[in-house]
Amino acid sequence: FWPIVDVRDVADALLLLYNKAGRHERYICSLDQMDLKELLEIMKSMYPSYSYADKCHIVSTSC
């Protein structure tokens, strides 16, 4: 599986973030919409040795 994006979409996303994002904010550009719990499960399966528990409360209290 190789994700393919239109460079114009990437440029639009960068311009949007340049104008709106704070210095320490992070964003994910994605075709599909998913909730934080689903995203964390995917990340945990990809990076099982990373410590997520101490960072989860910063993003959401439902983790």
List the SSEs and their pairings.
Layout: H1 7-20, H2 36-46, H3 53-59
List keywords for this structure.
single chain, 63 residues, mainly alpha, 3 helices, 0% strand, Thioester reductase (TE) domain-containing protein
Level of helix content? 40-55%
Distance between the termini: 29 Å
Count of discrete alpha- or pi-helical segments spanning 4 or more residues: 3
Oligomer: single chain
Taking Cα atoms only, what radius of gyration do you get, to the nearest Å?
14 Å
Mean pLDDT: 75
Strand count, sense and barrel status of the largest sheet are: none
Total domains: 1
How many strands in all? 0
Low-confidence stretches are: none
Helix vs. strand class = mainly alpha
Portion in strands:
under 5%
* Order of helical and strand elements: HHH
Global geometry: extended
Protein name: Thioester reductase (TE) domain-containing protein
Organism: Aegilops tauschii subsp. strangulata
How does this structure look, described?
There is one protein chain. This protein is mostly helical. It has one domain. Helices cover 51% and strands 0% of the residues. The chain is built from 3 helices and no strands. It has helices at residues 7-20, 36-46, 53-59. It comes from Aegilops tauschii subsp. strangulata. This is Thioester reductase (TE) domain-containing protein.
Summarize, please:
It comes from Aegilops tauschii subsp. strangulata. This protein is an all-alpha fold. It has helices at 7-20, 36-46, 53-59.
